[in-house]
């Protein structure tokens, strides 16, 4: 800048010195930041004014004054433009840095959450996926994504699900929400959840944007939980059968005693001088009926004792109630409990597992019987009702005339390991709740109103109606 000042001040050359100062300002932008550019610009302005003052201190020149103003204006304008350019560049660099950080964060969070992203254009089928989506599908990151590659790693049993989703997206018909399995080349089985939604650009072209989540860990945990619940339910059934040993023995002994009595009677009818064949046939029929009853009891006991996965079919709810009542009939008699059955006839089949529903009924019936242990003679009444409620579900209510449930205990009644009994384990009602909710129903407690003359408590639960396939 001093050289330019010397040329401008002591040289007779009449040239556009302002251009040189402009070049200095431009060069400073590539060397210094905003502060350096301002200092360079200020120096150029000062030197320009100083040179004019030295060379024109004695005589005024309109032309020189004009060149001074033009030079100052050129330096100021250049400085403003340079500073704006620097600011724009800094902003662009900041955006690029933020974009890189965002991409890094997105890639990192996708890796941690095992969620990849993808896009799919309709109707040409052009596809893009993120690195995590490629990893989930089991392909190298540089492989071009295609629906053929997606289908190639889809489990054969689920390919029709994925193909239907592809066809739907090619037609651009609504959101996609599917779960399916991937079979990797090494034999690994993955469970994935795919969510996708269409969007349209200004030209009306359709493109699906979606997320692919590897839910294998959640599915395996859910399966392990299901196995644990089945094992726990089985353990409680076996414990319950131990508590019902006397009732079970009574249920089996009754038909066996009838078989023995009818067998002796049949022999007497046949040993007469003239055998009474009609009477003998009648006693044989009674023997067969008693045998069938004993066989039925044993089958129900074996089913309750066996550990198997639930099987959901259409069941006659009233029949399940009656079978469960038969299992606790002796307990009812021993505790002098009167049973009132209000079973609505011709109910639609319920969708459920017979063994698990019997376990629920027996548990609730036994709880009610035990709750009425302090009732006066003739005051213990157990009421079981079935009906179809306003929502279309089948509803069961089991009411007792015992002392009721303390209000403080009601909110915790279905919590694991919580019991109102001194020797209770607190697992019966939580398992009942788990079974009912697994069946798609709900279970709750209804206590009588404070001004009601009737004591006791009522447990209700609902079950969905069986829908034929």
TrEMBL record:
EC category name: transferase
Transmembrane feature ranges: 15-32, 37-54, 60-83
Residue ranges the record marks as coiled coil: none
Alphabetized SUPFAM superfamilies for the sequence: ATPase domain of HSP90 chaperone/DNA topoisomerase II/histidine kinase, Homodimeric domain of signal transducing histidine kinase, PYP-like sensor domain (PAS domain)
Limits of the Histidine kinase domain: 247-467
Domain PAC: 176-227
Key words, A-Z: ATP-binding, Kinase, Membrane, Nucleotide-binding, Phosphoprotein, Transferase, Transmembrane, Transmembrane helix, Two-component regulatory system
Cited SMART domains: HATPase_c, HisKA
Cited Pfam families: HATPase_c, HisKA, PAS_3
InterPro entries, alphabetized: HATPase_C_sf, HATPase_dom, His_kinase_dom, HisK_dim/P_dom, HisK_dim/P_sf, PAS, PAS-assoc_C, PAS-like_dom_sf
EC nos: 2.7.13.3
Keyword Ribosomal protein on entry: no
Catalytic activity of the protein: ATP + protein L-histidine = ADP + protein N-phospho-L-histidine
Protein's recorded name: histidine kinase
Protein's organism: Duganella dendranthematis
